[in-house]
Amino acid sequence: MYKRMVLLIVLLTAVACQQQPTATNPLPTAPTGVVPTSEPTAVVEPTPSAVPIPAYLNPELPTAARVEDLLGRMTLEEKIGQMTLVEKNSIQPTAVTTYYIGGILSGGGGYPHDGNTPERWAAMVDSYQEAALATPLGIPIIYGVDAVHGHNNLKNATIFPHNIGLGATRNPELLRQIGQITAVETRATGIPWNYAPVIAVPQDIRWGRTYEAFSENSDLVSELGVALMQGLQGEDLATSTAVLATPKHYIGDGGTAWGTSTTEDYRLDQGDMQVDEATLRALHLPPYQAAIDAGAQSIMVSFSSWNGTKMHAQKFLLHDVLKGELGFTGFLVSDWQAIDQISPNYYNAVVTSINAGVDMNMVPYDYLRFINTMRTAVENGDITTARIDDAVRRILTAKFDLGLFENPYADTTNIGLIGSAEHRALAQEAVSQSLVLLQNENGTLPLPKDARIFVAGPFADDIGVQSGGWTIEWQGKPGNITEGTTILEAIEATAVGEVQFNRFGRFENFDPPADVGIVVLGELPYAEGHGDAADLSLSASDVELIRRVGEHADKVVVILLSGRPLIITDALPLADAWVAAWLPGSEGQGVADNLFGNHPFTGTLPYTWPASMAQLPLGAGGEPLFPFGYGLTTDN
Ligand code: GLC
C-alpha cells in the first residue's frame, strides 16, 4: 500500500507539471502532507483519505464516473488521438506519445519482425503501451488482432476450425470453450482486443469470406456468435483470460450481389447489398441484436454498401438503428482504411463517417492526415465536440472495463498454455464435431484400423492448407507453417495396417489393390475478396485423381478441405464416401478419429450444398445436392 501511495504522489506531481490548468480542467489538488518542492523531500506518511487521486485513476469508482472525470481533463488533441487506430508497422512508439494514439493493431499476419513468439508479441505490444503511458494523462492503448480461429497470427498457437466448421457442430457450449481458450492464448501475449467473431449471414458461397461465418441461417449465426463472444469475453473483461470481442462486419457483409464490388478484382467482397429494409432486418440484423444483448462493447463496420451507400456512411444504420434502436453503447470501429472509400475527398469521407457514428478509425496508415483532418473538421464545426465526446466516452469505457488503466502491460502468466496439449485436445474435438459425412456407401466408414490404406492428394500432408486463410499470414499459405497434425500424420498414427502416401496417386511402392484409397482435395488458402470465385467445381485433375485411385483400391474416401461447399455432383459416384472437413486447423487428428470410428460423425451442413453453380446465390432455385442441415452418421 505504501509503495502505491508514494507512486500516486509522484504521479500527481508529474501530472501537475505537464498539464496546463483550464477552467474545465483544474489540476488535481496536491495531496496534503506533501510539500511540492523540486528537491526530493522526505514523504510525510499521509493518511489514505488525505490523498485525493484523480477520479479516473481510482478503480473503486464506477466506470462511468472515471470516464467523465478523464474526459473532462482531455484536450481536443487527446480526444482525437483516442479515435485513431494505427497498424503497428506505420507508427513508432514515440509517435504514440506525441499524438496520444488510442489504438494499435496487427493486421492479418502482423507478427513481430524480430520473431513470431509469444514473448516477442508481448514485448511488441508493451513497447507501444509504454509510449501511451508516457502521455500526460497516461491513457493506455488498446491493441487489436484478428484471432478468428485461435490466436492465428502467432506461430504454434492452437488453430481451431474456421467458423464454417464450427457452424457444422451446432454446439454453442463447444464454441464458448473455444472462445475461452482463444482469449487465454491471445491475452497471454498482451492483446486485449479481438476482431472476432464474424456474424455475417452469407447468402452466396462464392464469397471469399464464407468460411469466416457460421452459416447462411440467421438464427444459427446468432446462437453461435453469442456463444463464441461470451467465451472470448468471459465474466470479467479485466482478467488475463478475457479479450474484448468485436462482432463484425456491420451490416450485410455476406449479402452483397455478385459483381457489385468496386475493390480490386473482388466480385462479392465489399460489394453492394441490394435488398429492402425488411430483408436486412430479418436476415442480417438479428445476430447484432443478440450480440448487443450478450454484452458486445465493440463492433466493426462493414466495407460493403447497402443499396449503393457505403456502410461507413450509413447514419441511419449506424446511429439510428444500431446505437439507437438496438441500444449499442459500445464503440464502432471502422474496417481497414474503409472510411477512405466513402469519397475521393478525404475531408468529406471523414466528416461523413464520424458523423454517421464511427467512433474509432482503423486508419490504418496515415494517422497524421486523419488527426489533422479531424481537428479541422471540429474547428469548422463540421464535427461537433459532442460527437467527439460521445466517441471517446465509448472507447474509454471499454478500456476501463478491460482493466487497462490498472494493468496496462502484458500479463504473461498463461503464456505456457499457448498451444498446450489441453488446448489442442479441444481443437481436435471441435474438428471431429465439425466433419459432415455427405456419402457413405458399401459400409465404407468407419475404416478397419488394419486396412491397407493408400493416401493421395495435394493437401493430405499440409497444415497450411488445412488451416486456410488468416493463419500466420493474412492469406494463409500452404506448407508446414505452424505446429500441428496433418491428416496424413493422423491416419498414420491411427491405422495399424500399411499406409502409403503419394500425392499424385501413383501406386509406386504399394501392391494394389488397397483396401481403401483416401483422396484429400480442396482449396488453397485465401482470405477476403481474394477468395471470391466464379466457379466452385472440382478441377479436372482432381476428378482424374479420384478416378486413378479408384482403379487400385477396393473402396475410395474423398476428404474435402474447403472454405465452402464445392460442386462435386458429377464426381460423387467415383467414391464410396465423401467427408466435408472444411478448414479444420492444426488438429488433423480429429479427422482420423472419425474415419476410424474413434469419434462418430455428427456434423450437419451449415450451408446449403448446391448441385451446380446455377443454384447460386442461395434461393436461385433448383434442388440442392445436399440441403441445409444434412449430415449422415456412421451408424446410418
Ligand atoms: C480486414 C478485414 C477485417 C479485419 C481488419 C483488420 O480488412 O476486413 O475483418 O478485422 O481488416 O485486420
Task: Walk me through this protein's architecture.
The structure is a single chain. By secondary structure, the chain is of the alpha/beta class. It folds into three domains: 53 residues, no CATH class; 359 residues, Glycoside hydrolase, family 3, N-terminal domain (TIM Barrel), CATH 3.20.20; 181 residues, Glycoside hydrolase family 3 C-terminal domain (Rossmann fold, 3-Layer(aba) Sandwich), CATH 3.40.50. The chain has 19 helices and 17 strands. The strands form four sheets. It has a six-stranded mixed beta sheet with strand order 12-17-16-15-13-14, with helices on both faces. A five-stranded parallel beta sheet has the order 4-3-2-1-11. Strands 5-7-10 form a three-stranded parallel beta sheet. It is globular and about 85 Å long. The protein starts with a helix and ends in a 41-residue tail after the last helix. Alpha-D-glucopyranose binds next to loops. The site of alpha-D-glucopyranose has 8 residues, from loops.
How would a textbook summarize the main sheet? 6 strands, mixed
Low-confidence stretches: 1-40
**CATH level-1 class of the largest domain:** Alpha Beta
Number of helices in the DSSP assignment: 19
Shape: globular
CATH architecture descriptor name of the largest domain = Alpha-Beta Barrel
How many β strands by DSSP? Answer: 17
Could you report the average pLDDT, rounded to the nearest whole number? 93
Span from first to last CA?
66 Å
Number of structural domains: 3
